[in-house]
């Protein structure tokens, strides 16, 4: 596993000082070769021993080993990208950027898979599959995934209440009961209105499931179960594409679990598809 992926996957279990070190390394991986442990400690205003202990906790002998491993990972990524782009450019001059994007999406999907343990993903699938009703909301671009996933759950015979308006959803959750689930999509996890909906839903003893970036955010604090997405790129036009790709892959995995985990749901899916198909014909 790449040391950078390992740091991202373990960040939430770290102490406050460790998270500061982790965030600095993740944001400055390419520059880390120029930092000694003392320089890194000085930049973060922490002790040098904290940097050493951080490295050892990740399984390295010390900071030099961590720095060397990260340097190798960065070099491999850069040379790999260059090789992929160069090969693609020879075969298809217009396809080089597409090959690089495909690689970055694959990396985001791998990181997202690593920070969502199988047991956690299974728990989300079980909560959705066993819920009396599933309330789903996402605002703006988040509604793209919310709407599509609500449709897939409906095909499986799972009763869904989908809204893209917070006022409508706060009214809808007044009908929530214990055993129901609320699935909230919010990339940055900072929407105050969504946090209020989560609070209201928990009063009904329902289970709250949040889908956000792999960051500390207010929305996750209200979650019984949290799905996390890791997608990072310095280019502002690329990062959203990585996020949506990794999230879609995560949701697809949960949908497959729901399909294959119950013969009854699978039968309902087949019956619904048969009923819907004639309606799609001109």
Automatic annotation (TrEMBL):
Keywords: DNA-binding, Transcription, Transcription regulation
InterPro entries associated with the record: Homeodomain-like_sf, HTH_RpiR, RpiR-like, RpiR-like_SIS, SIS_dom, SIS_dom_sf, WH-like_DNA-bd_sf
CDD domains given in the database record: SIS_RpiR
Keyword field contains Disulfide bond: no
UniProt xrefs under Gene3D superfamilies: Glucose-6-phosphate isomerase like protein, domain 1 (3.40.50.10490), Winged helix-like DNA-binding domain superfamily/Winged helix DNA-binding domain (1.10.10.10)
GO molecular function annotations of the record: DNA binding
TM spans (from-to): none
Segments forming domain HTH rpiR-type: 1-77
Protein name as it appears in the record: DNA-binding MurR/RpiR family transcriptional regulator
């Amino acid at each position: 596993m790449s040391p950078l992926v390992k740091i991202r996957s373990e960040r939430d279990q770290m102490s406050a000082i460790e998270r500061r070190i982790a965030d600095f390394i993740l944001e400055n991986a390419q520059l880390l070769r120029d930092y000694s442990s003392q320089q890194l400690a000085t930049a973060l205003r922490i002790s040098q021993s904290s940097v050493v202990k951080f490295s050892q906790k990740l399984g390295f002998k010390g900071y030099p080993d961590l720095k060397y491993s990260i340097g190798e990972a960065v070099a491999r990524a850069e040379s790999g990208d260059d090789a992929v782009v160069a090969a693609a450019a020879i075969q298809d001059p217009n396809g080089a950027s597409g090959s690089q994007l495909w690689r970055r999406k694959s990396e985001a999907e791998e990181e997202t898979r690593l920070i969502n343990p199988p047991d956690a993903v299974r728990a989300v699938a079980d909560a959705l599959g066993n819920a009396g009703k599933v309330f789903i909301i996402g605002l703006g671009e988040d509604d793209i995934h919310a709407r599509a996933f609500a449709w897939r759950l409906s095909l499986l015979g799972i009763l869904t209440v989908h809204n893209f308006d917070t006022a409508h959803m706060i009214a809808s959750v007044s009908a929530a009961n214990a055993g129901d689930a609320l699935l909230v999509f919010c990339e940055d996890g900072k929407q105050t209105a969504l946090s209020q909906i989560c609070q209201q839903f928990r009063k009904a003893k329902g289970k709250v499931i949040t889908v956000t970036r792999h960051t500390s955010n207010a929305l996750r604090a209200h979650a019984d179960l949290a799905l996390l997405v890791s997608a990072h790129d310095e280019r502002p036009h690329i990062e959203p594409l990585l996020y949506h790709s990794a999230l879609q892959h995560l949701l697809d995995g949960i949908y497959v679990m729901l399909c294959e985990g119950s013969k009854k749901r699978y039968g309902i899916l087949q019956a619904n598809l048969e009923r819907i198909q004639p309606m799609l014909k001109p």
